[in-house]
Amino acid sequence: MKSREQEYKEIFIAEALEYYDALNRLISELEKKPQDDRVLAEIFRMLHNLKANAKAIGYLQISDVSHKLETAFGLIRNKELSFSDEVVGVLFDGIDLLGELIKNIDSERQVEIDPVLIRNLDIVVDSLSDSTVELAKVQKFSTSRNLTLSDLIYIQVKKLDHLMNLVGELIIDRDRILSLSRELDNDELKVVSSHLYRITEDLQYSVMDARLVSIGTLFNKFPRVVRDISTAEKKEVNLDLSGQDIQIDRNILQIMTDSLLHLVRNAITHGIEKPVQRSKVGKPKVGSLQLSARSDRESVIITLTDDGRGIDVGKVKRAAVDRHLVPADVADGLPDSEVYSFLFEPGFSLAKEVTEFSGRGVGLDVVKNAIDSIGGRIRIESEKGKGTSFILQLPTSIAVKGALLFEIDNIFYAIPLIHTDSVVALDKDELHEVGEVLVADIKGETVTVVYLDELLNMEESQMRLGDKTRLKGQVQNIIIVTYNNRKLGLIVDKLYRQQDIVVKPLSKPLDSIDLYGGVTLLGTGKVCLVLDVPAITKYFVNKR
């Protein structure tokens, strides 16, 4: 696998060669129209970018020659240097030297730079070409020029999106062919289908790989953001970045951009205290903000941590009770993780009390919706007076999702793995009827449990979700799902396997049913409904 440095180098070379070709074209245009300010400005911009990029990646010869040429065109722009034939010749030689240096970055052969050429560039830069010092004649690089094309190309994201959709369709057909080969027990068909499986898998990962970008493309924009917000807030904040090399699907990063900006802004404006307040409680005057990324199997974990005032759980509970989101007696017994979930309720954080004491601003519901839309998860960890962390778990790809397959009443269903916490088997006697629902003790935690058959197939007026008599058999298969720091147990008839699925949107009239997030086709040709865990969890929170 390529190192990140190698990828950066290839991108630099591809861009530098584009600049080289464009500079040749623009200087030729300038020969015909020496007073064209637009062309001069474009040449100056390209040389400036090339100088900066080359210096950043450590190619100092390229940076130095670009700098001399940039200076020369700056003088031409300011009418301090005439664009005479001999000056044009020197500038073309300088551009050709740049081309040689760029093309030979990977070569063992060192480009021999003619000192007479550098002297000519220096003469032009120092505006001496019109004085007594004459330009020396040099061997032009262009006499033996070979035309080459870059090994890298730029592709529009929408083209990759289309390609990913086609791969998704192919995966569905592949699984169908594999299933048929097993049913027909044909050896030749088995060999062909096995080969098709490998090719499709390689194609899937190749397309997914082509869509990956470094998280640094977003993270590296935040030092300036933090500086501007902290200055406006009259606060001092130090930002620590890590994990910029972690790769993620470009579309996911695009969707998360506004959410991450929102969380960073909130952390500075409402989380981190002003220097005077920090000093009073024994904290350093400079607040700390950490933005990190790491890979975790099929997910990317982004964590934003501040050392600010933290969340006052008591204040959030009282605000939740005042807004009739939860009865007072229930609120008292809620674990902190469930209390933090109220902060994501629409409009909840508009309450002045919560904004002031919890240190979280407006619009966390918007952040939650963005994360839900890509099948991600978000949770909060906080300690009053010490600080707060937002932990975002994001899929590396949108189109193909890992899912757990199961059956209810001879119908196949799937749940995205990112919302699946664990799978347990419990005896019916371990389920307890409390109020209108069933609850069970799972790893020391009281979890609400529901029989999915009843939820999906009965009218609300007929539901008796706390009635154990409707359950089949003595041992119950339960999938523990999690959403917004809340857990829910789903009883199913049969558990099958984990499988990558391609989720397609539902057609009418099923698209109006909130509990379904889409549909996929299994290898057997059977339709499989994909459950929307956020919708199911919200249903029970509202019911409670």
UniProtKB/TrEMBL annotation:
Alphabetically ordered keywords of this record: ATP-binding, Chemotaxis, Kinase, Nucleotide-binding, Phosphoprotein, Transferase, Two-component regulatory system
InterPro entries hit by this protein: Bact_Chemotaxis_CheA (IPR051315), CheA-like_dim (IPR004105), CheA-like_homodim_sf (IPR037006), CheW-like_dom_sf (IPR036061), CheW-lke_dom (IPR002545), HATPase_C_sf (IPR036890), HATPase_dom (IPR003594), His_kinase_dom (IPR005467)
Coiled coil ranges: none
Catalysis: reaction(s): ATP + protein L-histidine = ADP + protein N-phospho-L-histidine
Domain called Histidine kinase: residue spans: 159-398
Modified residues annotated as Phosphohistidine in this record: 48
Function: Involved in the transmission of sensory signals from the chemoreceptors to the flagellar motors. CheA is autophosphorylated; it can transfer its phosphate group to either CheB or CheY.
Full protein name: Chemotaxis protein CheA
Species of origin: Pontibacter amylolyticus
